[in-house]
Structures are given as C-alpha cells and as structure tokens.
Amino acid sequence: MTTTTTAAAPTQPVSLLERFRVPGGFALGAVLLLGIAPLALSDFRLSLLAKYLCYAIVAVGVSLAWGRGGLLVLGQGVFFGLGGYAMAMHLKLADAAAAPGAGPGALPDFMQLYGTGGALPWWWKPFANPGFALAATVLLPMAVAAILGFFIFRRRVKGAYFAILSQAMAAALSIWLVGQQATTGGTNGLTDMQGFFGYSLDDPVNQKMVYFIIAVVLLLLMALARQLFVSRYGELLIAVRDSEERVRFLGYDPANVKLVAYVVAAGMAGLAGALFVPAVGIISPALIGIVPSIGFVIGAAVGGRASLVGAVLGAVAVAWAQSTLSDAFPAAWTYFQGLLFIVAVGFLPGGLASLVTVIRNRRTPTTRSGETA
Amino acid sequence: MTVILNQSFTGISIGAVLLLIALGLTLTFGQMGVINMAHGEFIMTGAYTTYVLQKSISSAGISLLVALPVAFVVAGLMGALLEWLLIRRLYTRPLDTLLVTWGVSLMLQQLARDIFGAPNVQTHAPDLLTGNISVGGGITLANSRLFILGLALLSVLALTLILRTTPLGRRIRAVVQNRDLAEVSGIATGQVDRITFFIGSGLAGVAGVALTLVGPIGPTMGTNYIVDAFLVVVVGGIGQLKGSVITAFALGVLQSVLEYSTTVSVAKVMVLVAIVAFLQWRPQGLYTLRTRSLA
Predict the structure, then answer these.
(1) Which of A54, A86, B1, B267 satisfies CB 3.0 to 4.6 Å to A137 for a cystine?
(2) Where are the domains of chain A?
(3) Touching check for A337 and chain B: CB below 8 Å?
(4) Contact residues of B toward A, CB < 8 A
(5) Is the pLDDT of residue A219 over 80?
(6) CA distances for A10 relative to A6, A64, B52, B175, B278, angstroms
(7) pLDDT at A213
(8) pLDDT tens, A348-370?
(9) SS3 of B141, please?
C-alpha cells in the first residue's frame, strides 16, 4: 500500500535551529508537563490531564505501529486492558490485605459480593506480588502481542485483514471480561482502589505524584520512540510500510520488523493502562472494547499519525474535547467525533502536524515539491 | 442427540443472520477492497424502516413483506450516497476508509438516536412467524429462524444469478478481478462501483428487516454484528460468495456448539482463536481469486 504520509527524512541539511529542535522541543515539553502544568492547574484539572496523558502514551505506540509501520492497530484496548487489569488486580489485592482484620491472601471486596467459593482464583495469586504485577503490566501485553503477531505476520495477514483481526480481539476480550463477573468484576470492572503501593490515593499529594509518574513515563517513551524512529530500524519500518515486497526482496523479513513495532506498541499501551488505573481509579470492559480501541487511533490520526509530537498532542486534544464536550452536549459531541474521523483521516491523512506543509505546498508547489504532504 | 440437533439448528440460524450481513460486505469488500464500517448502520436503517412501516401499515405480515424491498432501496441509496461522497475518493487507501466510515457510522447512530430515541424499539412479528414447528424427536424449529434462513438462501441465490447471468454481474466480476483491465475494456468502473455499493448496502437493509424478528431495534444494533460479519468475509476470502456462505454457517455452528459446552463469552474467544489458527493454514481465506499480484 502506498501511503501519502512520509516522515521527514532523518538526513536533512542540519541548520543550527534544526540541530536543537528535538532536544529543545523535548525540554520545552518537560518544562510544560513537569513545571508549568502542576503549578497552573487545579488538582482536579491535573488529574484529568493525567488521564489524557495515559491516552497520549498509547498514541506513542500507535504512532510507531500505524504511523511508521502502517499497521492499523484497532485492538490497542486489549493491551491497555491487560496492563490496566494487571495493575488493578494488584491494587485490589493490596487493599484487601491491608484491610483491618485481614491478612495476606484476603479476597478483594467485589469477590466477596459475587462469591467465588471463598478462594482466590489461581491466576489472581501471583498479582499479590508487587514486582510481578508491575512487570506483568508491560510484559503480559507484550507477550500476547508477540504470540498473536508472530502467527499473524508470519502468514502475511496484513492490511484490512489485520485491522479486523485486531478489532475482533478487542471485542473478544471485553466480552470475555464481562462474562467472568465473579473473577473480573464483569461490566463494572475493577474500581474503588484505595492505595497505590502503600500511598493512599485519596490524598491529593499522592494524586499529584501519580501525575508526575505518568508525565515522566510519557516523556521517556517519547524519547525511546524518537530513537527508534531515527534508527536504522525506523527506516526499515517505513520501508516495510511503503513497499513490503521490496524490503523482502532486499533480504529482510518484514514479519519481524512489523512484529517488533507491534510488540513495542503493545507494551506502551499496557503501561498506559497500568498508569490509568491509579490516575482514574477504574478499569472496565467499556474502556477497552471496540469503540475505545478505535478512539486510541483517532487521536493519533488527528494530530498526525507519523509525527510523534502530533500524535501525542492529538491524543490529548481529542481526549480533552471528549470530556469537555461529551458532558455538555452528548449528541453534538458524537456528530463532531464522526466528523473528526472523516475530515482528519479522509482529507488530512498527515493530521494537523502536516497542515503547515500542506498549506506551504499549496502556495509554492514548485519549490517544496520534494516534501510530500 | 436432540440437544446436538437443536444446537446445530441454532448455529445454522446464527449463520444465516451472519450470512445475510456478510453477503453485502463480500460484495463491497471484494469489489473495492473497501472496509465499510457503516455497513452495520445500514442494517440498523433496514430495521428502523420496518419499524416505521409497521406504524403506518397495521398488519404485521404485510408490513414485513413491504419492508423487504423498501429497506433494500433505502439502505442501498444510503450506501450509494456514501460511496459517491466519500469512499470513491479514498479507494487507494483502504485502511483510511475503515476509519472514515467508522466516523460515518458514529454519526448515523447518533442520527438514529435523535430521530427514534436512545432506547430500543420493538416491532411485532407476524403471527405466522412467532410459533415453532416441531419436527419430531423433540426437535423444534422457530418459524422466524426458518424465515431468516430462507431469506438468506434466497438472497444468495438472487445474488449468484445476478453475478453469473446478467451483463451487470459480468461487469462487477470483471472489476473485481482486474480493475485496470476492466476500465480499458470500456467498463465504467465508477458506475459499477456505485451499483455494487447499492446492492451490497441494500442487502444490509434486508438483513436489518430480518433482524427485527429476532432482536430489539436500537441505534447500536449494527455494531453488535459488524465485527462478526467482517470475520466471515476475512475467513471466507474476498470476492467469492461461496466462501462467505460456508464460513457463515461454519462460524454459526461453531459458536453455538461452543456456547453450549462453555459460556457465551468463552465461546467468543475460542472462535477468534480458531480463526487465527485457520488463517495460518489459509491466510487469504477459504477461497481466493488467483491473481499474479504479490499479495
């Protein structure tokens, strides 16, 4: 499939401005997120921002897999959910163990409600260990993505087929979670977390700490993704996106190239899900099904799927617009969201990040013809 | 034994519903490689058409019969409009089409919510279709399910006849097989695309009429079926009806047998695993068009 979006080539003539653009932008982002935002925003707004930044972390992965790799990942909710549930399970178990009169191995509150025969299911047990749970939030999604991706990419299932399979995965996981009411909380999901590794989540100071963790993770992952983008692997990934057959003829295995992008994106989504739980206080099937999974993609599409900063800003902007508009005008928001899909994806495939280039190309089509919009 | 037979009939009737929905998708997906996520909302359109008609025509039987052609035309026109407005501009970018039509589907759902209200509505099934037929040996077949099965098979038959025998069908097949060659042979591919979309979306409308017999009518009813229907197309292979027919019934029976032996939610996951395993064996689906292109 030929795509009209190309990333800025990494070997441009380097001016002084260009050389400091990336570290400068990174520093600016760090100052905004870690310095100005906590000072300027109220506790409530800061916790909302923390939630948006979780979506932005997913968008970093989407930008890698979809923007650079051409893999339309419509099932990021699966990995977001795996990470989120892994974290939530640990927090629930820790809460139960910390409750007065209970010891380690006590049942989380909702299980006592639905009744699991008084025993903790075996697959809950390892999550009582904080180290295991933390590792699982990232490694579990990556392992699932690696297994699925291996089988899917190996047989060259791609394009629309891949998109539909990944969407079906999101549907299957959320349906499965709803069905296992007694052990997963069903439709309600896991909610009402009290503590976060010994810190009370009710305390505004600790909420602020969660925000800082999320912001730092986002910045680190953006730096990691940026390094991947400019590495030889990043170039190979773009080559696979634009002409998979040619890459194969050159002696590379496109399946492995895609697998790495898919697995890394899954890990990022898992981490985002894990951080989402202490920041928002809930993980439920409604947050990871088909609709939210497509939602993870739209933010990146609006901002610019191939541009890292564009994808992150797009994700934050869409999440902000959703929570601001959907309460006040639910109907208007849905129309707006639909329009956003149509306009952003249909008519501005490079996203808002490409707007400048598009306009510039319109004005002086001859001089900038080397850069495609 | 009775249980197995009853379960397989349930499976076949699930398959018939899937087939009705997937038929239209096979056409539009096969034709332009386009993923139309708004297909589910054309189903919804068909269902609401039945609802509206039943308000003006009191006899449930007649209104259902009238609804079939009307829903076909209404949903078909919406599909043709969608193709003309958006899809034809995007047909070199199939993945983007998926997201754009998802946007359309969101808007259509909201439109339905604004017109008919968010809660589900009900239609009355004709008396003839409410009962059961007892075949003997403890096996009962619901009339409505039999009707849907018949409707699905009739649609397959009609579509096969159109594709095999009419000049239009020949043109459609030509475009599916090789768009460029069809174009240089003097076929107006743009026009063929629009007609294909009309038929494919119209079939979704017919499916919607059938679904009013087995479930509630609501703004999000399309979403419940659309992913399964796409899986049918993926497994069946694009561009050929027989793949979809076999797959729809196979998935339906598999789903209902697994549901019986486990639970609904576990069955969903197992069906998906089965599909991924199947694609290991045939990554392009059950039946594919042989082409020389690198796929």
Answers:
(1) A86
(2) 47-289
(3) yes
(4) 29, 33, 35, 86, 89-90, 92-96, 98-100, 102-107, 109-110, 113-114, 223, 227, 230-231, 234, 263-266, 268-269, 271-272, 275-277, 279-280, 283, 294-295
(5) yes
(6) 11, 16, 59, 41, 41
(7) 94
(8) 877 777 777 777 777 655 444 44
(9) strand
Tokens describing residue A145? 């993505």
Residue B42 belongs to some domain of the structure: yes
Inside any domain, residue B293: no
Question: CA A140, CA A58: separation in Å to the nearest integer?
Answer: 16
When divided into structural domains, chain B yields a total of 1
Give the residue on B whose Cα is nearest the Cα of A341: B103
Residues in chain B: 295
- On whether residue B272 sits in a domain, the answer given is no
CB pairs under 8 A between A and B: 131
Which chain B residues are within 8 Å of A290, Cβ to Cβ? 223, 227
Please name the residue of chain A whose CA is at the shortest distance from the CA of residue B30.
A160
Q: How high is the ipTM of this complex?
A: 0.83
Nearest to A216 by CA among A24, A38, A81: A38
Query: What is the value of pTM for the model shown?
Result: 0.87
3-state secondary structure B276-291: HHHHHHCCCCCCCCCC
Two structure tokens written together for B25: 């998708």
Q: What is the pLDDT of residues A76-126, one digit of tens each?
A: 999 999 999 999 999 988 888 887 777 666 778 777 776 656 678 888 888
Q: Is B214 helix (H, G, I), strand (E, B) or coil?
A: coil
- A143 is written with which tokens? 């392992």
Q: Which residues partner with A196 through β-bridges? A: A199
Q: Taking CB atoms and an 8 Å cutoff, what residues of chain A touch B220?
A: none
- Structural domain range at position B163: 12-226
A348 within 8 A of B99, measured Cβ to Cβ: no
Please tell me the number of Cα atoms within 13 Å of B183 on its side-chain side.
7
Residue B197 domain flag: yes
Q: Cβ distance A88 to A329 under 8 Å?
A: no
List C-alpha distances in Å: B81 to A208, A328, B198, B201.
50, 32, 9, 10
Q: Do B275 and A148 lie within an 8 Å CB cutoff?
A: no
A92 backbone φψ class: left, alpha, beta (φ>0; ψ -120 to 50): alpha
Confidence of residue A56 (pLDDT cuts 50, 70, 90): very high
* 3 state DSSP class of A196: strand
- Percent of chain A at pLDDT > 70 equals 90
Copy the structure tokens of residue A179: 């069905």
Q: Please choose, from the candidates A368, A246, A358, the residue with its C-alpha nearest in 3D space to the C-alpha of residue A4.
A: A358
Q: Which amino acid is at A35?
A: G
Q: Which two tokens stand for residue B54?
A: 């039943």
CB neighbours (10 Å) of residue B290?
5
